[in-house]
Amino acid sequence: MHSINILSIKNLKKSYGSKEVLKGLNLDIPEHSIFGFAGKNGAGKTTTMKLVLGLLRPDEGEIYVCDKKVSFGQTETNKYIGYLPDVPEFYPFMTSSEYLQFCGELCGMDESSVKARSSELLELVGLAGETHRIGSFSRGMKQRLGIAQALLNSPRLLICDEPTSALDPIGRKEILDILYAARGQTTIFFSTHILSDIERICTNVAFLEEGVIALQGDMSTVRGTYPGNEYIIETVLDGDADKLVKAFPELKAVNRNTLVCQEDNGKLSQVLRYMVDNGIPFYKIEREAPSLEDVFMKVIK
Ligand SMILES: Nc1ncnc2c1ncn2[C@@H]1O[C@H](COP(=O)(O)OP(=O)(O)OP(=O)(O)O)[C@@H](O)[C@H]1O
Ligand SMILES: [Mg+2]
């Protein structure tokens, strides 16, 4: 099946005064993906998202949402988008369902469909039955309500700007689980500087670095671009690991029975031959898959 790009960004440039933030950014977000947008603080993630929403004027380049061109100051393409900003604001005196009701009326949904959609979404984000006012909500609860609000209009593209950044590990996991659960209804584009969040749920990733996309693709391709060259060797008998380190001082002992071997110049085969010749049994020998963090560090070198 041919898959279309829900969002496509071509040669996007944006400066603030003399500061060039985006220097020719190209990005394609396939439909039904969970797309992680990685970049450190100040890389230009929020700027990119605001350009997609038509809230900022690009200096150069084009943006297409569902094949329609985005124009600065026009809301036309935003009908396809649900947006959760980095610091969402709510009316503290409302309850979650009152808030969703209010948002639904604002975007012209009829009352019965707002009701049905709200209860479905409050269920999804774990706020069904929550009757307290938003003013008393934790940060995590507010983010969850924000996701429900962004999904209210059944958007084809959900954009979340650092939805997990201010949260503790449990709050982060809750948000990631919700985004993962929402993947059937929409395409998800979220920014983060926490690479393990991307590793957890994303199908695709792009690294924003120095104003351009340093690397993008589906997760397995990106990880396969820089395969690791470390092998873990786990021996069975006490003392065998020490024996190996004596014979190959460059092996690193991780613990009593576990060694790390850097594979270069046929080192691994020498170690394996030695193990066979000396009758050293092993539990496992495996290649360490590089983490996204490793890949990122290599890319930005
Ligand atoms: N309105 C503005 N005027 C001037 N400079 C700005 C403005 N908005 C952002 N910048 C600068 O542009 C750069 C990119 O900012 P942006 O907020 O897009 O980064 P970010 O990747 O979202 O960062 P963070 O992870 O901190 O949210 C930063 O150096 C920032 O200081
Ligand atoms: Mg930001």
Detailed description of the structure:
There is one protein chain. The protein is an alpha/beta fold. It folds into two domains: 5-224, 3-Layer(aba) Sandwich (Rossmann fold), CATH 3.40.50; 230-300, Alpha-Beta Plaits (2-Layer Sandwich), CATH 3.30.70. Helix content is 34%, strand content 28%. The protein has ten helices and 14 strands. The strands form three sheets. It has a six-stranded mixed β-sheet with strand order 6-7-8-3-9-10, sandwiched between helices. Strands 2-1-4-5 form a four-stranded antiparallel β-sheet, covered by helices on one side. The longest helix is centred in the middle third of the chain and has 14 residues, at 111-124. The model has no long low-confidence stretch (mean pLDDT 93). Magnesium ion binds at residues 45-46, 86, 161-162.
What hetero molecules are bound to the protein chains?
adenosine-5'-triphosphate, magnesium ion
Whole-Å distance between the termini? 37 Å
CATH fourth-tier homologous superfamily of the largest domain:
P-loop containing nucleotide triphosphate hydrolases
- Can you tell me the number of structural domains? 2
List the helices and strands and how they pair.
Blueprint: E1 5-16, E2 19-30, E3 34-38, H1 45-52, E4 60-65, E5 68-69, E6 81-84, H2 96-106, H3 111-124, H4 139-151, E7 157-160, H5 169-181, E8 187-192, H6 195-201, E9 204-209, E10 212-218, H7 219-225, E11 230-235, H8 240-247, E12 252-255, E13 258-262, H9 267-277, E14 282-287, H10 292-300
Parallel strand pairs: 3-8, 3-9, 6-7, 7-8
Antiparallel strand pairs: 1-2, 1-4, 4-5, 9-10, 11-13, 11-14, 12-13
Helix pairs in contact: 2-3, 3-4, 4-5
